[in-house]
Amino acid sequence: MKHDTLTIAASGLSGSGESLRGPSLELDRFAQGALLADAWTRLERGATLPTQGLGFVTALSRSLLAGTRLEVFIGRGAGGIRGLIPLCRGEGRWARWRLAGTCEIFEPGDALCEDEAGAGALAEALARDAGPVTLDRLPASSALIPALRRAMRGRGLVSVRPAMASPFIRLDPSWQRAEDHFNAGRRSDFRRAARRAAAIAPVFHEVIVPELSEFDRLFDEAVAIEQRGWKDRSGSAMARDPAKEAFFRDWLRDACAQGSLRIAFLRIGQQAVAMQMALVMANRFWLLKIGYDEAYGKCSPGNLLMLHTIGHAAREGLETYEMLGAMEPWIADLWTQERHECLRLRTYPFSLAGLLALAQDGREWLRGRLARAPE
Description:
- By secondary structure, the chain is of the alpha+beta class.
- The chain is 38% helix and 29% strand.
- Helix 3 packs antiparallel against helix 10, helix 5 crosses helix 6 (144-151) and helix 8 crosses helix 10 (242-258).
- It starts with a strand and ends with a helix.
């Protein structure tokens, strides 16, 4: 079934001109001014997540999703494009559409919609397609959820279930002294760690808004710190995965050009021993990557840097400190129990592909129930 989309691939994307149809267009040319890019840039001003940006999806298409079918579904209305969402899927005939990036970096994502009408138009475009859709970790407040429920009436089934929430800290001026928000035991831990670090050499914190000319040097320094920690042993360090490193380098270089990138270090003497890479957008501090040198583990450099950047975000007048990821025990026990609820949405159109997806999910659900049943 035909639908109003534009295909992105590592080598380019399909569609051009007012109709978004036509010969392949190089991705760089597309990003500089084609119709969809203009609409994306306009809609991105209302983005609530860093994963909604054009730079994010472009970087994915060149690295972690290189060679994967990636299309942007479009919702049209008065004045042009009023909603869009980038979806990808495997090569199999019955493969599902899924939100680009969710399985690659495991962060929340959402459609970009101008308003409820834009969400409705986009939902109609998705509902007209015969393929099932999986949208993991949508914010519970996403306008696309009720819009898709309406659009799928008479066309298929919709399943909405809880997904991993993302932790955050709601900031106010009192967080400028972040340590005051912790109990006496935690404050003592922070002071002890700071004394241990200072006993080695003078301690420096820095939160850098990098110039494009210094981006690669600072990025490489941050990657090297991550590699000296537990992430290297677990295999999750960026340096262990060339595609992942290429993705973050490409995405964050674009953010650097936009002025939204922040790279933070904690240095003991001349040695950088902890790092953070973050974005500032929508008046929020978004923590993307962290790492510390395990040789300095007794100084808790990662915690000291986190404490500093929370205070920095509060001093900048930002509304929240977003940790993304999941509500892991080390976050809930030490930093915050506040969370943004997320949902997993799946559609099952009344088509062969939709029925096969429903049967597959039914089997998985039954297998899980049987595995949990008492013997």
